[in-house]
Design brief:
This protein is α/β, with parallel strands linked by helices and about 270 residues long. The strands form 2 sheets. Strands 6-7-8-3-9-10 form a 6-stranded mixed β-sheet, with helices on both faces. It has a 4-stranded antiparallel β-sheet with strand order 2-1-4-5, covered by helices on one side. Strand 1 and strand 2 form a beta hairpin. Helix 3 crosses helix 4. The chain is globular. The two termini are about 30 Å apart. Bound molecules: adenosine-5'-triphosphate (ATP) and magnesium ion (MG).
Length: about 270
């Protein structure tokens, strides 16, 4: 669904931000992007959405090429973006208007706007706050409204760029729960995060290091077989616990299953 084909990127000549980066994210995947501060995660997100263009190589969303101006609108429609600070995304004065704003912009019929408003506020459990002023909500609620506004546009993929990093534990839990709900319903989710517990919950981990892809695969296998500290990453609690209880042994099937079940909440 989203493909990077030998992508090179820099902001200023002489800089190397991304070097020969290639990967494909399939429809319906839940992918975490991890890596140290400044390694290029947000840059990748902006390239996915066509907000930035590669200097060399190609970024495509389905058959659409971000470098073709005529295809950009369809790409923006297909790829939703949730930022770190929900305040940056608010334009209007009520929760309802916030969700409706984009829909009116694309001139949808009134009934369709009503349907999408109901659906997206229900999906983030904010239906009871329609008249509330977004800036008075809690951090988690703000982020849920921001998600509703994006959902109402019916994107096929959603990028969350550190969308949980400013939230308290409860707010984070709510937003993560919504991300996983959306994923279960078929949404392609790209989750950029510094939280290794959250990386563990993803089906796939892309790890960036010095402009290159250092790892692409199952998150548990990464923590089990590679040295996370080499990439300025911590270890998830479950992996630390395993190392304390069974030092020197690899994560076996039983442990993997237990850790997975812990995070999936089932
Ligand atoms: N507009 C810009 N002009 C010049 N350099 C930039 C610009 N935006 C980002 N950079 C640089 O590009 C590199 C990658 O930035 P990016 O924001 O993609 O990293 P990141 O992995 O998202 O970091 P963080 O974890 O801190 O969010 C950094 O060295 C950053 O300083
Ligand atoms: Mg960033």
């Amino acid at each position: 669904m989203i493909t990077f084909d030998q992508v090179h990127f820099y902001y200023q000549k002489g800089q190397v931000i991304l070097e020969d980066l290639s990967f494909t994210i399939g429809a319906g995947e839940f992918v975490a992007i991890a890596g140290a501060n400044g390694c290029g995660k947000s840059t990748i997100a902006k390239l996915m959405d066509g907000l930035l263009l590669p200097k060399k190589g190609k970024v495509t969303f389905k058959e659409l090429d971000t470098a073709k101006p005529t295809e950009l609108e369809a790409i923006h429609e297909g790829v939703g973006f949730i930022f770190q600070n929900p305040e940056d995304q608010f334009i209007t004065t009520t929760v309802m208007d916030e969700v409706i704003f984009g829909l009116e912009n694309i001139r949808l019929p009134r009934e369709e706007i009503g349907r999408r408003l109901d659906y997206s506020l229900q999906a983030v459990q904010m239906d009871h706050c329609r008249e509330a002023q977004p800036h008075l909500l809690s951090g988690g609620q703000k982020q849920r409204v921001a998600i509703a506004a994006v959902l109402a546009m019916q994107p096929q993929a959603m990028i969350f760029d550190e969308a949980t990093s400013m939230l308290d534990p409860e707010g984070r839990k709510q937003v993560l729960g919504i991300m996983h709900d959306l994923h279960r319903q078929g949404m392609t989710v790209i989750h950029i995060t510094h939280h290794m517990e959250e990386v563990l919950e993803a089906g796939r981990m892309l790890l960036m290091d010095q402009g290159r892809l250092a790892y692409d695969g199952d998150p548990l296998t990464f923590f089990d077989t590679m040295n996370a500290a080499d990439y300025q990453l911590g270890l998830p609690f479950a992996v630390r616990l395993h190392r304390m209880l069974q030092p020197g042994t690899p994560l076996t099937g039983d442990w993997k299953e237990m850790i997975r079940r812990q995070w999936s909440g089932s």
